[in-house]
Amino acid sequence: MIKYPESFYKSTGSYACYFFCLLHIAEEVTGMQFDINTAIQLCSLHKMNGLPYLTFNWDDYNDPANFDVNAPEKILELFTGKKWSVEKVIGSSYKPKKGEYVIQHYKNGNIGHFRMKDYDPLQNSVTVAKGKIDSYRVFRIIGE
């Protein structure tokens, strides 16, 4: 069992929107549902260039670096078994192409939030309601 589960889940509610969008893509591609606790543990253990795919400080659930996504394409590869590319597109008018998975990034002042057109990991996001899209993360399966 996770130590201090209530604090742990509070942390996911504060910082994990990008990670949850990545898991949503993996679930859509594979048709599988992933256990969130196991997914976080796996991504925090796997590393690329010395950095974990996902930063999580298991000793401080309030660490603002928790849920920093360091290797989004590797997270998708871990859960789908496919190779991925990712491109950050600045602006607010990107039109997805066939076969792409697009995560939107909203800004409202200094607050940011990631979501997808058909999926938002946060119910009633104020950042989405009062902010605007400033960029996209565009994912493509390599070789398809």
Numbering strands along the chain, what is their spatial order in the largest sheet? 5-8-6-7
Beta-strand residue percentage: 25-35%
Secondary structure: number of strands? 8
The string of secondary-structure elements, in order, is HHHEEEEHEEEHE
Q: Estimate the global geometry from the Cα principal axes.
A: globular
The DSSP helix count reads 5
Nutshell version of this structure?
It is built from 5 helices and 8 strands.
Explained architecture:
A hairpin with a 2-residue loop joins strand 1 and strand 2. A 4-stranded antiparallel β-sheet has the order 5-8-6-7. A two-stranded antiparallel ribbon has the order 1-2. The chain is globular and about 45 Å long. The protein has about 140 residues and is an alpha+beta fold. It starts with a helix and ends with a strand.
List the helices and strands and how they pair.
Layout: H1 5-15, H2 17-30, H3 36-45, E1 47-48, E2 51-52, E3 54-55, E4 68-69, H4 72-80, E5 84-90, E6 100-108, E7 111-115, H5 126-130, E8 132-141
Antiparallel strand pairs: 1-2, 3-4, 5-8, 6-7, 6-8
Main attributes?
34% helix; single chain; alpha+beta
